[in-house]
């Protein structure tokens, strides 16, 4: 329900407009498909994915000898679900012990996501520790401490400017000695300096691999849905500097650009695992392709 509510603007941008197009035609022709294409592109699905979708839809329409525009919607929904690579695993790793590395540029909702995730996992009965390794911003450390104390989760931190890998190292020692289930690590997200970012993430990954080899791994990239196609290009860049196992798309509430999820899963083959639909602690939802497509297109 929360997902559906969060996606209401995207539904207006996409589902409602698709229905308007379909209602304006008496038979299926190239003009109708072109109008559909325009709707999908303006709904932030991206050029590449839209082209593939429309080509596949045209094929299906021909194969099934469909003439009536009112029959297009279920076919389009199926094509969208197929384009999203349903085999992608949307579950986040929580076997004990797991290190969840959280990456993404500043302002996308990284800190908030870590707070919500820590509270959710704690609520599921897991013991959780947060390592505040975004040492670039003092505010990030303070914010995590606030989220941590609210959720009853310890936050391992150093001073602003400290070596992020050293914070992660301390986090690992704490997680090992307390036999914690999950260690969530914040990181700094300075995308404008790709070489530095890559070096920092490599160093962090090296420390985890060396000192916590038994841990399961999850690397979540946090993206801001309100930035639409820019989120897609951020994902491409981060995908070059680090191995990503899942995406968290924040701020879906209040944006019409929720169609970008289709592009993320289709173009980059990365599973969206969680979505943010508000600022509250309960506003982090598990993602599921069927629920999503049903919510944006009715
Ligand atoms: P960071 O710089 O990436 O750590 O970003 P923050 O976690 O500080 O979040 C930036 C702003 O976005 C804050 O005001 C958050 O409350 C807000 N925010 C984060 N996630 C969501 C979300 O899912 N929905 C909404 N509406 N706001 C969010």
Question: Describe the biggest sheet?
Answer: 8 strands, mixed
| Oligomeric assembly | single chain
> Radius of gyration in whole Å, from Cα?
21 Å
Strand portion? 5-15%
Given the structure, what is the number of helices? Answer: 12
Number of strands: 8
The backbone outline, from C-alpha atoms, is elongated
Low-confidence stretches: none
Q: Helix/strand/pairing class, anyone?
A: alpha/beta
Terminal-residue CA separation = 14 Å
Q: Biggest sheet: strands side by side, in what order?
A: 3-2-4-1-5-6-7-8
Helix amount, in percent? Answer: 40-55%
| Mean model confidence by pLDDT | 95
Sketch the topology as an H/E string, one letter per element: HHHHHEHEHEHEHEHEHEEH
Bound molecules: guanosine-5'-diphosphate
Catalytic activity: GTP + H2O = GDP + phosphate + H(+)
Protein name: Signal recognition particle receptor FtsY
Binding site for GTP: 104-111, 186-190, 250-253
Function: Involved in targeting and insertion of nascent membrane proteins into the cytoplasmic membrane. Acts as a receptor for the complex formed by the signal recognition particle (SRP) and the ribosome-nascent chain (RNC).
Keywords:
alpha/beta; cytoplasm; cell membrane; elongated; 298 residues; binds guanosine-5'-diphosphate; 12 helices; 8-stranded mixed beta sheet
Description:
With 298 residues, the protein is an alpha/beta fold. It contains twelve helices and eight strands. Guanosine-5'-diphosphate binds at residues 106-112, 140, 250-251, 253-254, 276-279, 283. The site of guanosine-5'-diphosphate has 17 residues, from α6.
């Amino acid at each position: 329900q929360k997902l559906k509510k969060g996606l209401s603007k995207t539904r207006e941008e996409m589902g409602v407009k698709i229905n308007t197009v379909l209602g304006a035609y008496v038979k299926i022709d190239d003009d109708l498909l072109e109008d559909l294409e325009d709707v999908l592109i303006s709904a932030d699905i991206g050029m590449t994915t839209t082209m593939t979708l429309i080509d596949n839809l045209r094929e299906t329409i021909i194969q099934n000898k469909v003439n009536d525009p009112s029959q297009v919607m279920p076919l389009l929904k199926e094509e969208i679900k197929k384009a999203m690579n349903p085999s992608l695993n949307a579950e986040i790793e929580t076997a004990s012990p797991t290190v969840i590395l959280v990456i993404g540029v500043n302002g996308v909702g990284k800190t908030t996501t870590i707070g919500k995730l820590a509270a959710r996992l704690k609520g599921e009965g897991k013991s959780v520790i947060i390592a505040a390794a975004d040492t670039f911003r003092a505010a990030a450390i303070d914010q995590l401490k606030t989220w941590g104390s609210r959720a009853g989760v310890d936050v391992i931190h150093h001073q602003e400017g400290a070596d992020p890998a050293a914070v992660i190292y301390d986090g690992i020692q704490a997680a090992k000695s307390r036999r914690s289930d999950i260690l969530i690590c914040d990181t700094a997200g300075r995308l404008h300096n790709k070489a530095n970012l890559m070096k920092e993430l490599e160093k962090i990954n090296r420390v985890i691999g060396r000192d916590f080899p038994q841990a399961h791994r999850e690397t979540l990239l946090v993206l801001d849905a309100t930035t639409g196609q820019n989120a897609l290009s951020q994902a491409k860049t981060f995908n070059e500097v680090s191995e990503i196992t899942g995406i968290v798309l924040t701020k879906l509430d209040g944006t019409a650009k929720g169609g970008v999820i289709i592009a993320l899963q289709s173009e980059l083959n990365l599973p969206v695992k969680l979505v943010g639909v508000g600022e509250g602690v309960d506003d982090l939802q598990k993602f599921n392709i069927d629920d999503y497509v049903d919510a944006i297109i009715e």
